[in-house]
Amino acid sequence: MIEQITKHLKDQFNGRLQVNEKRPGIYQLFLPLYHEDGDMIEIYLQQENGHWKISDYAMALMRLSYSYDVDTENKEKIFQKIISENGLNEENGKIFITANDEQLYPSILQFATGISKVSSMRFFKREVIESLFYEQLEEYIYAELSSYKPEKKALPLKERDDLEADYAFHPNGYPVFLFGVKDTPKARLATICCLEYQKLNIDFRSYIVHEDFTKLAKKDQSRLTSACDKQFVSLDDFKENAVKFLEREK
């Protein structure tokens, strides 16, 4: 069976395939598919429950660990997101995908693409981690603050979709509008929104949740402080104190 499959794969890869049986029933495929540093991607093939299992036997994470450890909750979320978005699975560090005979060739290509992205995590460290700020904020709001009736993408002024609040809570008769802020453009937008709401005498409270308040320039810190009612200097600060402040609005 393996001879027939590898012969078919060799034809699909224009003869550029070598196969080595590493252990009984487990075959390593040598293909012109490479990591960004030029090393060949490790691909292992075995039959399991009537399908082919394509795996890296945890080699991608081992390679990554030489320069970049997946050692925080944020990094683990990035790793799992890459796995999911590329249609792969992971168990105990082993990344894999299953395929039938007909889908083996495209599945190998899909697998190699995902492995390449995992091994590239070290090249976009901080940028990717920071991009999770809004996802983590949303996750916390819907998991822990659902009793305050969160409304995403709230429009205090129906005719002004440019003045959208990230969330609205309704602990009492007036809304609490919340803005997540991780950079200067968002800080300035939140300032403008709060000032416009005030100009029209809307009865509301405004909360700002920063990715890192200290990253903002002093002038932006001052403008936002003057315009809003409450700022949380980090997501951890918000998680620790959000309920306490929302309770005060009742």
The Cα radius of gyration reads 25 Å
Number of helices: 9
> Could you spell the SSE succession in H and E letters?
HEEEEHHEEHHHEEEHEHEH
Q: Would you count the extended β strands for me?
A: 11
- What CATH architecture of the largest domain would you give? 2-Layer Sandwich
Q: How is the main sheet built?
A: 6 strands, antiparallel
What share of the residues does DSSP label as strand, in percent? 15-25%
Using the coordinates above, name the CATH class of the largest domain.
Answer: Alpha Beta
User: Looking at the structure, what is the overall shape?
Assistant: elongated
Biggest sheet: strand arrangement = 1-2-3-4-6-5
What do you see in this structure?
Helix 2 (59-65) runs parallel beside helix 4 (104-119), helix 3 (73-85) runs antiparallel to helix 4 (104-119) and helix 7 runs parallel beside helix 8 (218-227). The model has no long low-confidence stretch (mean pLDDT 90). It is elongated and about 75 Å long. The chain has 2 domains: 2-130, Yope Regulator, Chain: A; 145-248, Rossmann fold (3-Layer(aba) Sandwich). Helix 8 links the parallel strand 10 (205-210) and strand 11 (230-232). Strands 1-2-3-4-6-5 form a 6-stranded antiparallel sheet. By secondary structure, it is an alpha+beta fold. The chain has 9 helices and 11 strands.
